[in-house]
Structure formats: structure tokens, C-alpha cells
Amino acid sequence: MTKADFRAGAARAVGDVQLRSNFRRAMDGLMEKRAAQFADGEELERLRTLGESIRSRSLARLPELLVQLENNCRENGIQVHWAETAEDGNRIVLDILKRRNAKTLVKGKSMVSEEMELNHFLEAQGIETLESDLGEYIIQLAQEMPSHIVMPVIHRNTAQIAELMERKIAGVSYTENPDELCRIARKVLREKFYKADAGISGVNFAVAETGTLCLVENEGNGRMSTTAPKTHIAVMGIEKVVEHLQDVPPLLSLLTRSATGQPITTYFNMISSPRRPGEQDGPQEVHLVLLDNGRSRILADPELRPTLRCIRCGACMNHCPVYTRVGGHAYQAVIPGPIGEILTPQLRGLDVRGDMPFGSTLCNACVEVCPVRIPIVDILLRLRAEANSPEQGGSVKGAGAKREGKEAMAWKGWQAMHASGAVYNGLSRLLAKTGNMMPGSVGPLKAWTATRTKPRFAARTLHQMTRKRGIPDE
Amino acid sequence: MSERSYPERPESVYFFGTCLIDLFYPGAGMAGIELLQREGLNVIFPQAQSCCGQPAYNSGYRDEARAVARNQVRHFPKPYPVIVPSGSCASMLRNRYPGLFEGDPDEGAAVGFSKRVYELTEFLVHVLKVELTDLGPPMKVTWHGSCSMQREMGLREEPRQLLAQLGNVDLRPLERERECCGFGGTFSIKLPEISAAMAGDKAGDVERSGAEVLVSGDCGCLMNIAGTLEARGRRVAPRHIAEFLWERTHDKG
Ligand code: SF4
Q1: Which residues of chain B are within 8 Å of residue A21 when distances are taken between CB atoms?
Q2: Are A109 and A202 in contact (CB under 8 A)?
Q3: Most Cβ neighbours (<10 Å): which of A331, B108, B204, B209?
Q4: Are B75 and A421 inside 8 Å of each other by CB?
């Protein structure tokens, strides 16, 4: 596989007219819906302050809270497993399935399982996995990655989905009627729910004091995946824990209103135990897999820690002018957009994805909407510095990996020109005299002039003009 | 940001021209100085100033950025306000210098300096409370507020308040006015395809506004949007807000 590179992916995507219009339309709609939910700006800011403080407080006490969560889950009859890496997590899931002799599996939507590449791993072990979230189901049919963390198939319009379903599902004829398309998918999925040996889900919030797993969804597939099969396995990143039950409602409100502009989702599940004696339904076993996979390292750095406050609402991508232009696949990462630009390089290393923090104009649109006020731009800047750091071994894996001799030298030259008033005055005058003779078609200017006219140096600098006018120097 | 408290009108101010203005739009810098002088202020322009350091800082070259930033910190020593005709450079000087100098011998000076930094329209509105009389002909204009002006400096209304004082100016709304134009400093060179797509969309919005003049407080955005318009053969004149205000309000006779 060639190395993932945002610029290459973006350059391809930007030229795809259909894709661009799909995203623009979808993102405009999402922005409008969110804005309608937060018409009262003061209420929004109060809620953001609360959300930020709940998440910061949880992270500050994360190790204790995780132990508390484990104890309370165990008391409730939920089996808890710790996974240091994605591979560990995959193996834990496989072991559980083997013990239960499970061959088929339905999945609710889970970004952590995408991070683990769980489907891929299990299929290789001969276990059939079926995505039950409509969007995830469609991208599974298309053998694609999600292009958005909340709406995985947002890159396709109805006609493209209709064509796919006709092609991939036996006995289905072409229809663009959304209700009809849903009905077709539901029929396939219903059958699988009843037959599946196990269900897998993600977790939106885990409550330490009660040992409760909360799951937010709109389609009921989450409830089906977690109750119909005999075994339910929940996978979650360790950062998802909160202290108290009362911490959940404000976060839920921020999540659904920021994500889809809904006051609340159609389903909100609170899972606190397997089926108890005398109960009619529910799984016989519930497992919780807690995945670290680099999160402890993020937690340890105070400047980077806010990354873990994320509640995966997707508002930062909906409002991102870059994401809107290129869509999720251009990032070639499980989590795209602004949060992906800061999270992915931290989880996977700057040596692997050091390109991602540079895929931003630093416009702050994400920071303005993030419901838990993650300082995304500050973290982007920090990661850029770490990627280009002259020393290796910073707190992020792969620090210094992006540094290139040629670029480093260019900045040294820039420094020499601008760090001394005398040198700057001399060189800027020279540029005023000769700068316009530089051809626009070579070097860094080439990229600029492909779609813009060449900037023109003024005949005299402001320094020269002010001196001539007698503007005092001190 | 918006909760910032403002000082009384001072006698003297420093002017930080920014490197883009210095090399490409010196007229905008001169106009900024003249707007301040007209209010009776003694404007000082330290000749040793160069660049705020943002290009290197945003590219992750912090040592190089700090070396250049130090040159600015040292050449604005007196306790006068530092006026900057750019939201982007003002934000670098104001919001990033303290962190950049953390643990450095010049930290105290850098923090003191950053507290004295004001963006030009911010200073004209909140400290000088200027009153403008429009002497220019009727004109259709649209305003592009840069991302740093709006979201880092929290200055959304200030430039509009100034433009609204010009009786003959018809300020046209710009669609998606809060969206980034795609400049992003070195972003425009490193990710040129996305930058061009964003600039192209913004240029289209500017055209559709029906404005004859595009006014902004940041020359990076102006260069990006106007350069795109010009390459398409469209006639919308770019103007920095300082130059626009000065041109329309000073008595040429
Ligand atoms: S970073 Fe903020 S806006 Fe983006 S997904 Fe996470 S919580 Fe939502």
C-alpha cells in the first residue's frame, strides 16, 4: 500500500463535481439544523461550558474512574476486558466469539471497531459480520470506508445508493424512493438480527458510578444488536467514561443537537447488565472491551489531553470548509475532518500521518462549534511543531518525522531575513526593486499562479514611505 | 476578545505594518497611519520591524518564529499601544506570543508587548471612537472578514460599524460570509488544489454580491480572492479597509 497522503486524496476529490455537490448540500443542511437547535446563544455557551467541564473532570480522574467502572460493571454482571492495542482488542473479541461458538455477528455503529479494523480481522477468521446501521450497511455493500463519523454514507446521494442496492442485493430492483430503500435494507437486516450469534456495539458514554453503558442511535439497530443475540460485546475507547449518571443528559443534548440537529435521537439505550433471572429478553452475556491504543499517551500530555474530550458529534467536520470540499475519504483515515487531523496522528504517529495536521487553513470554524470546546487549532499547531521538530522523541510518536532538510533550510533563510531590522530593510528594498522580475511559473509561486494572478511587489516598501514622510522611528 | 477592556485615548501609538503590507500594499499601511494621525495621535513606526513570525509558526518552525518575534518584541519597548492593520498578524502578536516565549528570558517583555496589541479597526472603534464623514461617490462594496479577525480576535462588528458610517457606500451582503477564503498562509502553497477550490467559491460569492469593491482587513485574503478574480478577468477592486476608509474620508483638496 502506498503511504496515505492527504494532498493526493484531496486533489482527486476536489475535481469530483458530483462528490463536491453531495457534500456541500449535506453539510449546508447539517449546519442549518444545528443552528436551529442553538438559537439561544447564551444557552449554548452555558451548555458548552458544562460539557467541557464534565469531560475535563472525567479525564482528570480517568484511571480511577475506569477502575470504578470495571468494578460496577462486574457487579452488574458485565464482563470487562482491557485491550492495550487494537490487536489485543481484536483477539479479545475473537476469543469471546470462539468460546460461544459464534459464527455470525451483527454490528451497531462503532468508530472504535473501525479503528481496530475489527470486521476485516474477523472475516479473515471466518466470522461473518454484518453492519446493521443503514449507512454502515451501505458502505459495507460498497466495500468503502465511512466518510463521516456520524453519517458514514454521506458522500453518496440517493441515486448512487439505489444503484448500489440494485447491484448488490439479490432480487432488488432500482428505486430512488428512500422509504422503499429503507424497507429493503430492513428486510435483510431483520433476518440477520434473529440469526446472529453475537452483537457488537460501540459506547457513547460509560457511567463509572453505576456501571452503565449508554448508546445513542436513531434506527433501533443498536437496540437490536445489543439485545437480540445471546452475546453482546461493547467496545469503547477508554476516554468515554464519565463520573456520574447526571453527567449524561448535558452531553447527550450537546451530542444530538450538534450532530444531526435533533433535540434527542429516536433511541437512547442504557445497558446495565445481561438478562437477569426471570427476565424475558436481553443477552445472556455482556462484555465490555476497553481499548487504549495510544490514548494513555495523549492523556499524559496536558496540551494534547483535550483531544480526548471529543464526543464524536461530527460538528467540526460539518463546519469545516476543507472537509466540505473534499469529503471524508480524502483523509484516508477512520476519523476525517478536524478531529481526525488531531486524533489520527496522535494515535498512529507523526511518522505515519504527519501530513494530517497540515490539512487545515486554521480558520477556527471547528473550534467555534465544538460542543466540548476542544482547542483544535492549538493542537494542530502543536502537532505541526512536533512533526517538524529538530529533536526526536517528543511526546507524540514519530516526532520530527516530517522535518525535511530543504524546508528547514528555507525557514532558516527566512529567519535570517526577518530577525534583524538591518538585514530586513536591505532585502525588502531589494525585493521592491527586483521582486516582480521573478517568474511566476516556478518554485512555490507555481501552485499559487495556477488559478491566481501573481502578487505584485510595490515600488517602495512601507518602511521607505514612512521614512520619507518623516514618521518617527521611536 | 469581546470582553477586552480598552484604555483611554493615548498620545502616542506604535504602528506595526506587517510584512505583506510592507512589500505588497504599502498604501494600506500609510493610510492606517494617516487615520491615526488625523485623530491627533503621535504615530511611531520602528524601522527595525519586519514580520510577526506567523508563517514559520503556523508551519511548525517555532525556533525560527521565535527568533523573528524577538526582533519585534525588542523594537516596541515603550508602553504605547501597538496598532496592527491585520486581524491575522494582530492575533499572532496578541494570542501566540505569550506561549511562544514561555520559559524564555524575553517572556515578560513578550507578554507585556502582546497585551498592548490592537487590530486597527478595533482601535479606531473602541479607543478612538472615530466619526467618519463620507466624501466619496456612491459605491457598491462587500466586506470579507478574515477568519482570524472574526474568530481569533472576536472582531465582527467593528469594521462594519466603520463602513456603515460612510453614507454613500452600499454595503452588499456576502453569501457564506463567515467561511474561510482558503488562503491559510502556506496552506495555499502546500495544498493548492483545496485552496484554489475555496478561493474560487469565495470569488464567485463576491461576484454575485454585485460589489465593485471588495474590502477586507487582511491582505492575505485580499491577495487570494482578488488574485482569483483577476485571473478570471473579473473587475472587482480589492481594498484594505484602512485604505478604503482613508480614501473616502480625507479632503484631497
Ligand atoms: S472535536 Fe468537537 S466538534 Fe469534532 S467531533 Fe469531537 S466533539 Fe464534535
Answers
A1: none
A2: yes
A3: A331
A4: yes
In contact, B81 and B14? CB cutoff 8 Å: yes
Pick from B30, B184, B189: CB nearest A444? B189
Tell me the pLDDT of chain A averaged across its residues. 95
The vertex-B21 CA angle with B20 and B27, nearest 5°, equals: 155
For residue A432, the Cα-to-chain-centroid distance in whole angstroms is 45
Q: Nearest by CB to B231, from A435, A453, A472: name it.
A: A453
Radius of gyration of chain B (CA): 18
The answer to whether B198 contacts A321, with C-beta atoms less than 8 Å apart, is yes
Q: Ligand 1: does its nearest atom lie under 6 Å from the Cβ of A116?
A: no
Q: Judge: A451–B19 Cβ closer than 8 Å, yes or no.
A: no
pLDDT averaged per 10 residues in sequence order, chain A, 474 residues:
82 92 94 97 97 98 98 98 98 97 94 96 95 93 94 93 93 92 90 92 98 96 93 98 98 98 96 93 96 97 98 98 96 97 97 96 98 98 95 86 94 97 96 88 83 93 97 95
Residues of A in contact with B182 (CB under 8 A): 321, 361
DSSP result, A326-357: H-GGGG-SSS-HHHHHHHHHHHH-HHHHTTGG
Q: Measured in whole angstroms, how far is the alpha carbon of residue A440 from the centre of its chain? A: 38
Half-sphere exposure of B251 (CA within 13 A, CB side): 2
What residues of chain A lie within 8 A of the CB of B194, using their CB?
A: 10, 14, 322, 325-326, 359
The set of cell numbers assigned to B126 is 473602541
Cross-chain CB nearest to A463 (options B22, B59, B193): B22
Closest ligand 1 atom to A366 CA? 3
**Atom in ligand 1 nearest the alpha carbon of residue A149:** 5
pLDDT of residue B115: 97
H or E segment to which residue A456 belongs? none
CA distances from B127 to A29, A352, B130, B241, B248 (A): 40, 49, 8, 18, 21
CA nearest neighbour of A52 among A308, A258, A334: A308
User: Maximum CA pair distance of chain B?
Assistant: 54
* ipTM of this predicted structure: 0.97
Residue A153, phi then psi, degrees to nearest 5? -110, 20
- Inspect the interface and report whether the beta carbons of B23 and A358 lie closer than 8 Å: no
Q: Which residues of A133-172 are buried (b: 16+ CB within 10 A; e: fewer)?
A: bbbbbbbbbbebebbbbbbbbbbbbeebbbebbeeeeeeb
Closest alpha carbon to A427 in A444, A409, A441, A415:
A415
Q: Distance, in angstroms, between B90 CA and closest chain A CA? A: 15
In B183-249, at which residue ranges do the beta strands (DSSP E only) sit?
213-216, 237-240
**A334 close to ligand 1 (CB < 6 Angstrom):** no
C-alpha cell at B36: 491615526
Q: Please indicate if any CB of chain A lies within 8 Å of the CB of B51.
A: yes
CB pairs under 8 A between A and B: 208
Q: Is A348 exposed, middle or buried (CB count within 10 Å of its CB: 0-12, 13-18, 19+)?
A: buried
Residue showing cell 470540499: A325
Domain range summary for chain B, segments of one domain joined by +: 12-126, 139-249
Kindly report, residue by residue over A140-185, the tens digit of the pLDDT: 999 999 999 999 999 999 999 999 999 999 889 999 999 999 999 9
B122, amino acid identity:
E
Chain A residues within 8 A of B71 when measuring between CB atoms: 418-421
Burial of A318 (0-12, 13-18, 19+ CB in 10 A): buried
Query: Of the candidates B216, B146, B155, which has an alpha carbon nearest to the alpha carbon of residue B180?
Result: B146
For A72, other C-beta atoms within 10 Å of its C-beta total: 19
Cell numbers representing residue B174 in the block: 456576502
Question: Structurally, what CATH architecture does the domain formed by B139-249 represent?
Answer: 3-Layer(aba) Sandwich (3.40)
All structural domains of chain A, each given as residue ranges with its CATH number in brackets, are 1-37+303-403 (no CATH), 55-293 (3.40.50.10420), 405-468 (no CATH)
CB contact under 8 A, A424 and B197: no
